[in-house]
Amino acid sequence: MKLTRMLPASCMLLSLMIPQALLAQKPTGSESPSYYNIGGVLSNNESESHFGTVIAHLNFDQQYVPRGTTYYDKTIRIDKNPIKTALNVCKHLISRRVYAVVVSHEPTGDLSPAAVSYTSGFYQIPVIGISSREAAFSDKNIHVSFLRTVPPYYHQADVWLEILSHFGYTKVIIIHSSDTDGRAVLGRFQTTSQTNYDDIDVRATVESIVEFEPKLDSFSSYLMDMKTAQSRVYLLYASQEDAYVIFRDAAIHNMTDYGHIWIVTEQALSANNTPTGIIGLKLNNAENETDHIKDAIYILASAIKEMTVNETITEAPKDCDDSGAIWESGKRLFGYLKTRNIRGETGQVAFDDNGDRMYAEYDVINVHENHSFVKVGSFHYDSEKRKMRLKINDSSITWPGNTGKKPEGIMIPTHLKVLTIEEKPFVYARKLLDDEIDCADDEVVCPHFNITNGNEQEYCCKGYCIDLLKALAQRINFTYDLALSPDGQFGHYQLKNHTTGIGTTVKKEWNGLIGELVAERADLIVAPLTINPERAEFIEFSKPFKYQGITILEKKPSRSSTLVSFLQPFSNTLWILVMVSVHVVALVLYLLDRFSPFGRFKLSSNDGTEEDALNLSSAIWFAWGVLLNSGIGEGTPRSFSARVLGMVWAGFAMIIVASYTANLAAFLVLERPKTKLTGINDARLRNTMENLTCATVKGSSVDMYFRRQVELSNMYRTMEANNYDTAEQAIQDVKDGKLMAFIWDSSRLEYEASKDCELVTAGELFGRSGYGVGLQKASPWTDAVTLAILDFHESGFMESLDKEWIFHGNVQQCEQFEKTPNTLGLKNMAGVFILVGAGIVGGIGLIIIEVVYKKHQIKKQKKMEIARHAADKWRGTIEKRKTLRASLAMQRQYNVGLNSVSKSVSQNAEKSRYPILPPLPRTPERAWPKDKEYIVNRKNNSGSGAGKPPPRYMPTYATDVSHLIV
User: Which parts of the sequence bind L-glutamate (predicted)?
Assistant: First the structure.
């Protein structure tokens, strides 16, 4: 708001003649005061007079001062002695109960405003600075109630960023003094760049930071280091004296000529030897103290008015010698002051959380010939968009070297440091042997510097990416030094401990190839580096030299060749039914042939050659012979009913055998196994309960992809514990069967699948992306590399690299292998041979059992024969004794009775000739063959002719008694 017109002199005099007794009035009750004393610590009489005039005008401005409220001014002169200034504040301001203090800047000293801030801040009395721009006043731990209508010096970093964005410079070198303000400029630049500039492509990055001690004598050593950097854009914060030395030495080293850009702050712009072409800043109304006094008073009145509406203001402290109690109303009044946002004499006035002026306006100054300063632009507040806006007239700018052509701002090096990583088939790394002096013609030296132990080993590299690097170097004309990744990783975020003066802090940093490029220890990455958002935020990528995606590698699930592989054509149930059917049919055949009248009994006209009916053993043999298509020599069914069943069984056997043969060919010969997984959406991959191990490489682009995908979070948590350090280890574990699925870039996995036909990729590609060449942010080589790669695609060069390094012509071989039938081997049919072997072993075992059993039977028969022979011998001895006794008895009778009748003699002789035999022992019929013959003879004799009774004796045992017959 503009000030009101000057009031008549009578009004001014009336305000000055207010009785002093009124100043001693105090507010009653809980009401806010009706008058407010405003203190001023000013630098000259003009400022003091203007301070009183503004307050007098303020009392008649009802927009800021409500009816019944009056403001009074209390001013003192600032002293270059800060202690004296502090004492004056206590004696002449605080003692008169000032509610706020407006402080100016003493021309010859910087400490007096700080003394005012310390003294007033102790009582929480707000202090409004109108000329103090040091960074120290932003520290609210020290200057607790200080705010200012001028911006601090380090806020010029905001304008620097706008100028860099306007000209398109993205890589700079910051030169600053090692004091509080110099470090604040650097911190402000880095913080604002990361916070307000989301687009990494236009964000300015600091390539180098040069910090120097104030009041230096020479700057040449710093300039020599700056010459080796790529950036040629210098941002300078220095005092007038230091800037003089820097410009002097820069001119000596030709660093103020064309190609170098200097953007400086206000202090450096005021040096006497500023070179032509320098761009600097100048704060609007920086020296106009009267305008800042007016803005400060009106801001204070606005805050007090709003505060009186919302709460009661207690009276201000009155004495520096009291207990020093904090004035709570002053603390809250300071909060109201920071929320002000008005249009004043110096532009749009607002404050940040530190109480520093926002929306400060600057002029962009360009130094022309003869040390003339020309305004070429402005940094001003846009009231429509309510933000600051930079406007520069490019055509009116004179650049270093007194030319109107804008420099590139960067020196393009022609010798680059290139990094790569071993990843077949893109990069093959071979360690150089001790007896080898140099690599082969198709290889490039690529040393590996181990960051763990500091050792360096020589390697030779070749492959897809090496050929691409050679083509790029030839096409866009640069030389290079190639090296392998120091830690053997592509690069990912990792936590690192950083020790500072306060303590140890944990910070995320890139490692691997990305970390080397971010730290600017490399210029290019030529490797199978996947383009993804996380990496693209920190490095540049060329257009993809190969498009690819993510896929899954697994080993082909060969059919399980167990010992019973030949049984696979039929299910277990069917095999059991076939086994049962064989024996059931054999049993029925036996029964039919047994009970059939034409199966058991021979016909009347039988000539003795017709075979007997089937027994059970022959029936089983017949059933198995028909099923197995073997010749049946004997034991066939004889009855018609059994033969009908045999024909039906033969038809059944034919169907079973034909079905088995067809299915065996389908299962073991013609079928090629398919993949176990259908792709990334396979339920077995996403189900954490399944016993399916999958993994990828730690910290890789695939690992980052799974972290980004919310729907794959469960799967990622499961596979995270299985992840490998390198792809080589994972692929080998897939071949060995230790890992079921390896998720990785499709290019590498297709190469592995084409090289080994036992490996296969599962499902369609997902997470499609591409491999690109990595470069530093704002690298001058980005466009040249991209155009060269696009040209390679059009000319067919990239396709030739694919054929040479990735496929090797093996894809057709694997496809042919897929179409040819699989031959059966011992592994598939081992069960059949084992079955035959089991039959042989079983037969040998049975024959051994039969032999043993037969020997046991023969031994038992011999024992029985010996026992029977002993019994016969004993029986013969008994018979001889009986015969002898009978003979002796008859001899005695003969001697005693010679005259006995002949009949008696004949009868005795007959009895003697045929003695009566004892009864045979009771033994089984089949116990002894002679007994059987004896019984048969008895039967035969009993059935013959004359009805003679069987003899009770045997002629064999009769004794010759013919000598007894007379």
Answer: 528, 530, 535, 701, 745
